Amino acid sequence: MPIFFQQTIDGTSKLGVWKIEEEEDFFLQKVMPQRYVTHPHKKLQHLAGRYLLGFLYPDFPVSLIQIADTRKPFLQNEAYHFSISHCGDYAAAIVSRDSRVGIDIEISTEKIKKIEHKFLHEEERMMINKSGSNRTELLTLMWCCKESMFKWWGKGNVDFSEMLRVSGPGNQSEGIMQGNFIKSDLNIIFPLQYKFFPELILTWVATKPELNH
Description:
alpha+beta; CATH 3.90.470.20; globular
């Protein structure tokens, strides 16, 4: 079974990463794709992510997933909070009964440098430049963290460079960064967990954050 990584975060929250080695029929035994997914590999990623939800919580009602206008998948009754991410041959999911969640996985490549101006705040750029660590990996980590924050928020309309701020060393194989979500009169602070693998970078948030006005 290609469960690549699995972790129980607390009594009500779990996450997992699935390495996709199966054909489409394997996943179709348990889940059905949304109609808008037509590209073969993206369909596999899509199916694997939803399959993983049921793997983490066997009673997860995958068939009841709806898609918001912001493209965020959700359950109408919020029996579970969940988030899904795909990259290459991997799918990741996080599920919680009582915490809002967000997850992201990325493969670190030089391409991230072409978009850093779109998601980095100047303070974050200075932090990376002073770190002395692998710049490409740190940029990818920052992007992952902000994607996890964005999915946690779930309402769209976010400026990644101004509203999503990330701080912390990020120079260990795993650890915690601090996330600040700044919007209007809100300053939401929460921990962002991260983990480096040889193949990819994983970040997630599962928390009921403190709201600072």
